[in-house]
Amino acid sequence: xxxxxxxxxxxxxxxxxxxxxxxxxxxxxxxxxxxxxxxxxxxxxxxxxxxxxxxxxxxxxxxxxxxxxxxxxxxxxxxxxxxxxxxxxxxxxxxxxxxxxxxxxxxxxxxxxxxxxxxxxxxxxxxxxxxxxxxxxxxxxxxxxxxxxxxxxxxxxxxxxxxxxxxxxxxxxxxxxxxxxxxxxxxxxxxxxxxxxxxxxxxxxxxxxxxxxxxxxxxxxxxxxxxxxxxxxxxxxxxxxxxxxxxxxxxxxxxxxxxxxxxxxxxxxxxxxxxxxxxxxxxxxxxxxxxxxxxxxxxxxxxxxxxxxxxxxxxxxxxxxxxxxxxxxxxxxxxxxxxxxxxxxxxxxxxxxxxxxxxxxxxxxxxxxxxxxxxxxxxxxxxxxxxxxxxxxxxxxxxxxxxxxxxxxxxxxxxxxxxxxxxxxxxxxxxxxxxxxxxxxxxxxxxxxxxxxxxxxxxx
Length: 460
Hints:
Layout: H1 16-28, H2 33-49, H3 55-61, E1 64-69, E2 72-77, H4 78-103, H5 110-134, H6 153-161, H7 169-193, H8 200-218, H9 224-241, H10 247-255, H11 264-279, H12 287-308, H13 311-335, H14 340-343, H15 350-376, H16 389-398, H17 403-413, H18 418-459
Antiparallel strand pairs: 1-2
C-alpha cells in the first residue's frame, strides 16, 4: 500500500487577492459605509447629467434589455429593470427586517412599538397634507403627494452611526422601526395608488404562487432556492398584473420561514460535544487522518449552525451586502440625474418643489412630534430608556431624509412629465441635505447636554 502523503492539500494563508480586497472588506463592515457609497453615486449622477455629454446619462438608462420566447416579447429599459426588478430585492430585505422586528426585535411588544407606529403615522400624514396644500386636487402635480412620506434608512442610520457609542441603543432602534414602518406605508401607497390598470388573471396566478410558497413554509421546507425560484415567477406575474412589482419583495418575505430546527440548549450540546471531540484529536496522527476528523467535526458544526439559524436570518445575511452596496447605490446613480438647466426654465414647478421640500423638512418632524405629543397624553405612552423629546426631534429631522424611497415614488408619480420629476428630485435632494444637517446638530447638542448632566451628577 502506498504511503499516505503528509500534506493532502497545500495551504495558502495570505494570497494576493486577500491583501487587495481586505481594505474593502474592512470598509464594508463599517456601519455607515453603505450610505457613503449611496451619496457618492448620487453625486456622480448629478455631475454626469450636467456635463456637456450629459445626454449619455439618459440614453444609458433608456437602453432596452430583455428576452423573446417565440412571439412573446419582454423588454424593459435598464432604468425599469433597476426600479422594478432590483428594487424588489430591496423591498424583500425590508420585508425580512419587518418580519424579524415583529418576531424578536423592537416591534415584538406592541406597547414598546406603539411610539414607533404613532410617530411614523404622523411622519407620513403631515408631509402628504403639506404637499396637497401646495398641490390640491386637479393640479398638475397632485400625483406626487406620496413623495415626502418616506424615510431613507441607509442615509439616516448612516448619520446616526457617526455618533458611535454616544447614542442610546433605543434611539437607533426607534429610528429603524420608524423607517421600516414608513417604508411599509409607502409600499401600501404604491400598491394602491401608483399601480396601473389591474389584470386580474395575472393577479390570480400570483395569488396561486403565493399560496404555494405559504404551503412550502408550513410543511417545513427551508432551502432558500426553493423559495427564490417561485419568487421570480411571482415577480413576473405581479409585474404583468398592473400592481407595482416591488410589492413582490414584501409578499415573498412573509413566506420565508422564521423558525429554527433546534433550540439553544440542543445547539449548545452539539457544539460542546463536537468541540470536545476536536480537542481530543492528536496532530501527530498525520495530516490525512487529522484533516478527515476535523472535516467531520466542521460538518457537524455546520449542521448545527444551519439548524439553529432561521432561513430568514440566513437569506438576509446573504443578501444585505448586495442590497446596501450594489442595488441601492445603483438606484441612486440611475435616479439622481437632475438636469439643472431645465429647472431654470418654465418647466420648474414651485408648487411641486415646495410641496416636496416642506413636506420632508417640516412635515416629517412636525408630524412625528405632534402625534407623539398627543400620544403622550394617554396612559399607554412610555418613552424608551435614555430617549427624550429633543432626541425625538433630531430623529424627526433625520426621518426627513427621504432620498431612496422618495425618488422611487417620484419616478412613479411623474413617469411622463420630466420637468415635474426633475423638480421633485431637486426638492428631495435639498430637503434631505438640510434635514440631515439639522438632525445631526440637534442630536449632537442633546448628547452633549446628556454627557454634561451625567458629569454633574457624578461630581455631586
